[in-house]
Every structure is written in structure tokens, then in C-alpha cells.
Design goal:
The protein has a 7-stranded mixed beta sheet with strand order 6-5-4-3-2-1-16. Strands 7-8-11-12-13-14-15 form a 7-stranded mixed beta sheet. Strands 9-10 form a two-stranded antiparallel sheet. The chain has one domain: Ribonuclease Z/Hydroxyacylglutathione hydrolase-like (Metallo-beta-lactamase, Chain A, 4-Layer Sandwich), CATH 3.60.15. Strand 5, helix 3 and strand 6 form a beta-alpha-beta unit. Helix 4 packs across helix 5. It is α/β, with parallel strands linked by helices. It is built from 6 helices and 16 strands. Helices cover 20% and strands 29% of the residues.
Amino acid sequence: MDTKGTVITWLGHATFKFETTEGKIVVVDPWVSGNPATPDDQKEQREIDLMLITHGHFDHIADAVDLGKKLKPQTFAIPETSHWLNSKGVPNVGELNKGGRVEAQGVHFTMTHAVHSCGITDGDAIVYGGEAAGYVLEFPGGLRVYHAGDTTVFSDMKIIGELYEPDVCLLPIGGWYTMSPKEAAYACNLLGAKAVIPMHFGTFPVLTGTPDELSKLVGNKTEIVEMKPGQSLETPS
């Protein structure tokens, strides 16, 4: 898999960090401090220029307020989640919606559809967080990444594949709350995926799907890149 100079680091679960060819740090779905899959040396993030949030469940947003206040990255989410972040005093929060395309920190990104719920745990209450989403990110070096967020397979993944032509797809495979390998393999076909990095598996006992299962189902049609939490991938630009 060619990363075209972008460094991809999996921080565990659905949290990914990217370092662009221009030296900017991008984090999607910030859950590190309490994430049992995140290595100890990655639990404290010291630099983030851009933070993107797919939806408001704790395992995707738990560190968004603290990191947003401390590091002050440009932050984007669907409007209802953006409003909640603003209410918590997070600066530099922007909003977009599905189909919207934004450029920030040299990265172009488009919010895509996802099929999932989106409630934000706020004390003892569940706050409406809008809808769950995904992103297609286009990095300065030319790498296109589809982060599906939490979702099951849906037919419009074919449109995402045809319209944005991602080089690598980050797909949940754990099952129970998202796709299992069976649905993820079908998603690979719809997306025409060249390479897939599995995510959202193994963090909790119920997330039983594995990269090996996915690899057996897709055969040689898609490169399945199994990462370990804390691992980074980089190929020269």
C-alpha cells in the first residue's frame, strides 16, 4: 500500500492520526486517554492541527473536549455535534454536513453518509448529536482515505467508491455495533477498495471480527493491511 508520503498511525479502535507531507497532524475520532487499545506512549497527544469527528459516541469523541481546549486544532463535525462542542467551550469548531467539502490545514475532506446512531453521553443525559457520518480525506501528497466511521454496509458505498476513488478504506469489522467481516467484505466490493485497514475490532470482547476473517472473504481482490495499535505506515512521496 502506497501512502504517498502521508504517515498513517492507528491509535486503536477507530482513532487514526495522519501526518501530512506538509507536517500537519490530523486526528479522526479522538479517543486515546481511556482507550484500552491505545499504547501508553500515545495516550497523551501533544500536537493536533485538525480534528474530525464522525459521530458522538464516547468511543469516538471522549477526548474531543480536552484536546480541543488544550491544543486548539481546527475541529469539524456534523452541526449538532459541533454545537455541543461549542457549548463545552471548545474553540475553532466548524460544521459541515453530508456531501459538504472543506479545506483546512492543507487537507480537503468531504463528509459522507454512514448508517449508525449518534447520541452524545453528557452526564446522565443522552444528547442528540445529529447523524453519524464518515469522511473522505485528500492529503497534500495525493493520498485519498475513506474513514467510514461506525456503519453497516449500505448501497451508496458504491457511489463513494466511484465518486472519490479512495486509495485506502478504513472499515469497521468488529460486529455487534458495526459491520462484521461479512458485511465489510461486501462493502469492499461496493467500494472497489484497493486497500483496507480494518478498525473497530478487538477493543471489547463483543467486537469479535478479525482481519483474517475479512482477508479470507475478499481473497486477492483487496489488500487487507492489518495494523497494530500504535503502528505507523509510511511510504515516500
